[in-house]
């Protein structure tokens, strides 16, 4: 969708995915000041925001549910044939 993620979890699969894809920023959970700071930084650093948006769109294409389902179906068909 092209909207950078602010994820309030510092560890875990979702956080790692956001960071690996450069699709957003991880912040300390339940910390309003850090969340506000991250939003302000995105607003002020337009180059970084544009990069995050672009990377979000790339991640959305990479993790498209329909495409992933078709890949899974193809793998299951391989196993069924074998």
What report would you give on this structure?
With 82 residues, the chain is mostly helical. The chain has one domain. It has helices spanning 13-20, 32-44, 46-62, 65-81, and strands at residues 5-7, 24-26. The chain has a two-stranded parallel sheet with strand order 1-2. The longest helix has 17 residues, at 46-62. It is elongated. The termini are far apart.
Unreliable runs: none
Strand percentage lies at: 5-15%
SSE succession: EHEHHH
- Helix percent reads 55-70%
Major sheet attributes: 2 strands, parallel
Shape designation: elongated
- Quaternary status: single chain
Number of strands: 2
Structural class designation: mainly alpha
Give the termini separation: 38 Å
Q: Can you tell me the number of structural domains?
A: 1
Q: Which strand order do you get reading across the main beta sheet?
A: 1-2
CA gyration radius, whole angstroms? 17 Å
- Count of separate DSSP helical elements: 4
Mean pLDDT: 91
